[in-house]
Input
Amino acid sequence: MRLQATRILTALVILSTCLVLVLAVLVGRQIDRATNVESDRLGWRESIVGMTMGLERQSLLLRADLQAWLRRPDDAALERVRERWELFVSRVQLVRETRAGASFATAEHERVLARLAAIMERGEPLLAQPGPAGEALAAGLRELLALVEQAGPDMQGYTWSASVQTTRRLEQQFAAVQQQTVLIGVLAGAQLLLMALVLQAARAGRRQERRDREALQALNEQLQDAKVQAEAAARAKSQFLANMSHELRTPFQGVIGMLQILRGSPLSPQQGQVVGSALSSARHLLQVLNEVLDVSAIEAGRMTLRPAPLHTRRLFAEVEALARLQAQTKGLCLEVQLEPGLPERLQGDAMRIKQILFNLLNNAVKFTPSGGIRLKARGYELGGGETLLVTEVTDTGIGIEPAMLERLFQRFETGDGSLARRHGGTGLGLEISRTLARLMGGDLVAHSRPGEGSTFVLTLRLGEVPDADEAGEESGWMSLADAGAVVPGRPARALKVLVADDHPINRQYLQLVLEGLGHAATLVDNGEEAVEVAQTDDFDAVLMDVHMPVMDGLEATRRIRALGGAHARLPILALSADVVADARERAAAAGATAFLAKPVDMEQLRSVFAALAQGGAGAAQLAAAAPPPPAQADALLSARFEALREQLPPDSLAGLVRQFFGDEAGALRELRIAAGGTEPAAVRLAAHKFKGSARMLGFDGVAAAAERIEQSSRAGGDPQRLQALLAALDRAIAATAAEPALARLLAERQAA
Output
């Protein structure tokens, strides 16, 4: 019995081996077939179909340009005819020289070649050399037009014949491959059947393996469900924190605002002390809330940076001004050392850098009972347009124990428990600061000894700004918290301000502040009323709350902008307690001039409206504070560019790219000229034209920037916003030109 089983097994093995050999032969043939198919596919890329279609199209365009010139024989039309003739000649050369032409040779091919020879013979002496139009040229062009019209039916038949032959060849190849695939499949099935018989003894093991795999799959599904639930919980937490941010920060608007107003009224010393304590506590609670929200953004991976050109020494001066007040309150000496080699301008997120420095200096003041604090900053060039900014904050305070130093940057670590109770704090500031530093390519480390003070070293990798004219006042979308450079005082003129806020305390607070500053306030409680009231009077500014019933502030802003005229230039300041990452971007996209985070400080409002009341440079600064979203937010190259790389010869595509960036069509030049005029319609048409050429080549980042110019011109075309949009367009063009795919294409064509 065993001998019989052995013989059967031996026979099966021999048969299986034979089938393997046969299958190997067929697979080899299949590989050869695949190679041939690939060769044909490569031939298809430059096939006569694509070229004949292009030839037919260029002949039709040539005929149209010739007809246009004959109807209106001016120099511009003649130049278009010559340009079209060059394109037509290039198509004729492709048809003559490509190797695909021989493989698709037909009677139509010979007829078309004869027609093309006649056209070339007539057109070359007429159009090859530039020159003025004359009677001889006109007569020659009429003859050329007749030849092109006569060749039209042959070119159509040529294209159809090539398409039919290509389709037939592809069908034949597909049928051959399909037949061989079926044969291979049959042999493979037989092979599998034999192998199943040979390996029958291993079935038990496979069953066990299958059971184990099913168990793992079930476990994986459970883990996937748990992951989905965890992500849903994280989203719910983020939404909850965003909602709580709004719900908590909105009452703080009223609390802090009313306390500031109360502090400015006549009070007894005891009352003044009580109000000061209440205001300090409210600000402390707001700081705790901001830290908790920052930690939530870090956990969700939504902590983002907004780099922009910044004035380095001005940034440190602002930090010093606030820290010096805190240090003087405790009788401490604050020393700021900025080394001579520190760059004047860098590229970075000024708000986040200030946040880190404020936290370090605040901790230094908090834990230094006597002595002083030193802030030292220096810069090192790293090459590649980057600078390493190194800032040291050194104090003569109580120092940190070595064991605590290791846990210093962990969440909720505040040092010794008694010190935490004495000085307060959440233990989140250092963790947030280190995270921000690492997001900027740097780090935050600490060195300390008990009783000898501490040194915190902050390193940041920041971009350089080579041209001083390119770095504005922390250019880009900014919070009006940085507008404090305007010196407060009696306003240059009284402003009429429309205030839209659904919270009655906020409205009352803003009204009191504005009236205290000498301005008149008109109050509404939703966006719909804001749009209606904005049309009844000539307001100088609008304070627009983002979250309101009936119609929110963003929609109201869009509708006010859509009114055009003065409403397109009306300063609209978005108010929001929503501090999620994209709040500013959504406000800017809606057309808001700038963004003001709640709770709004009285001094902040004083500075803002002092700038608006002074007009001129101050108002221009605020109006320019909200440029369009940067072009890098859009995809620079779309899938259309990749399709063009597949469809067009590399030299042709490279030529189109060079023409675009060289602005040989003059579309960009036309847009700049229109932007310098006073007609929004001209800007809109020029932007539409330039957008079309960019979109045609798949340069979606450039097209999106041009589209924003087009949309802005429809709303009235504010000159300052138009200049910001043009700057964004220039950045998009530069970024697209630097794309590796484009650079590689142009380099390869130049080398070839």
